[in-house]
Amino acid sequence: MIAATADSFEIEKAKLCRKIAELQAALNAKDQKLRELQLAADNLLAEGEVQLAPRDHYTELSNDDIARYSRQLILTDFGVSGQMKLKNSAVLIVGLGGLGCPAAQYLASAGCGNLGLVDYDEVEPSNLHRQTLHTVSRCGISKAESARIALLELNPHCRIICYSNLLNSFNAMQIIPAYDVILDCSDNVATRYLLNDACSILQKPLVSGSALKMDGQLTVYCYGENGPCYRCIYPVPPPPEAVTNCGDGGVLGAVTGTIGALQAMEAIKVIVGLGEVLAGRMLIFDGSSCQFRNIKIRGKRPNCHVCSSQPLITGLIDYELFCGMNANDKDNALQLLEPEQRINVLDYHKLATEKKSHLLLDVRPPAEFEICQLPDAVNVPLAQILDDSYVQRFAQQLESKEYPIFVVCRRGNDSQIAVQHMKTRFPDHSIRDLEDGMHAWTKLVDQNFPIY
Ligand SMILES: Nc1ncnc2c1ncn2[C@@H]1O[C@H](COP(=O)(O)OP(=O)(O)OP(=O)(O)O)[C@@H](O)[C@H]1O
Ligand SMILES: [Zn+2]
Known about the structure:
The chain is built from 19 helices and 13 strands. It is an alpha/beta fold. The N and C termini lie far apart (54 Å). It folds into two domains: 53-323, Rossmann fold (3-Layer(aba) Sandwich); 339-445, Rhodanese-like domain (Oxidized Rhodanese, domain 1, 3-Layer(aba) Sandwich), CATH 3.40.250.10. The strands form two sheets. An eight-stranded mixed sheet has the order 3-2-1-4-5-6-7-8, sandwiched between helices. It has a five-stranded parallel sheet with strand order 9-13-12-10-11. Zinc ion is lined by residues 228-229, 231-232, 300-301, 304, 306-307. InterPro entries: MOCS3/Uba4 (IPR028885), Rhodanese-like_dom (IPR001763), Rhodanese-like_dom_sf (IPR036873), ThiF/MoeB/HesA (IPR045886), ThiF_NAD_FAD-bd (IPR000594), Ubiquitin-activating_enz (IPR035985).
């Protein structure tokens, strides 16, 4: 009995030691990243690229301006003074993706004099269905540069500064002060908090948009005396597992187009002093029923950590650490299973080619299964694994040791969750997942297999 207890202590101790080693490694990686970010920010500053050069101040419209903007100049509430304000304004757009492209397009064409474009990413074919400034021929180049090319064709009078870098806690405070209005067109929680805190500290209106699947949201933070900030509404970040991105959940391009265009609209209203800015309210767009709802959101939180009269946060922090998520929407590779609970795609391919009896469960949603599947795969969405409703369907295979079970998904994360769950019910059955999922299949087994 005592020996057994000592053994279990030893096992527990070994586990804790492993955990400590993992945490130490994570800490070292963060330290390294911090050094890289600092270096990148220094380089950027050294290149003199960060500062928007002193803006020209215009006092009148040119003939070309009058001809170009005539249809908005004749608007009673807009007029010459509105156009002059736009011409002298500077707007920073963070993210030149689904939201940022239409927002930039409407701001440049309306005559916003100075646009800053921030995006660290490059154009990919899967962006083109909604990121309307980019083109097939510009795949592979910086999104900020690609957007600049398109925008200058639209309006050569617009001055455009590109920052083809990740906006982070070092460069944000150098870039943002030069701009009048900031547009959050990013796709991740860490960047939302970073932009919020920077805008709150620097007192810049932040036009925040988001879109997923068929739905979108829009509001303006940090606007005026009483306008709440993002932290007033969301004091703590959501748990990482509750966050879905466009790459996983999907999105319709016209939804991002709708919200992006409205972000441009709110920015123009802020600059020109037009209408009623969407602060303290949130627009909820349900694309499937085409309904726009405007809900009142709470005002400034008296104890908000960043925008209250006695803030706890007076400088930018490490937002990836704070949110437990990276400042991008790419999935982190999970490490849930032991190596013996996984099989690489080459070994699986060999076994399947030799026609060894087995069952291959594909745990992606049906819409994704319809796009492409591995030979003989059976679609059992992850939800059916987790609620155990698959058990009855595969009772025969689960009873027979002759049927090793393999689980596959798109990138090898959900498949691990599925195996971990199935193992709790069938600990003695051989159940393994395909490492790195179908992406690895395309890379290592069949380059003609579609990737998405
Ligand atoms: N901190 C940041 N600094 C600079 N750019 C950012 C930052 N966070 C997000 N972005 C950019 O914001 C954009 C968000 O747009 P969107 O989600 O439509 O594009 P995406 O990430 O290319 O899409 P997908 O998920 O389909 O690959 C991306 O281009 C992304 O690179
Ligand atoms: Zn606040």
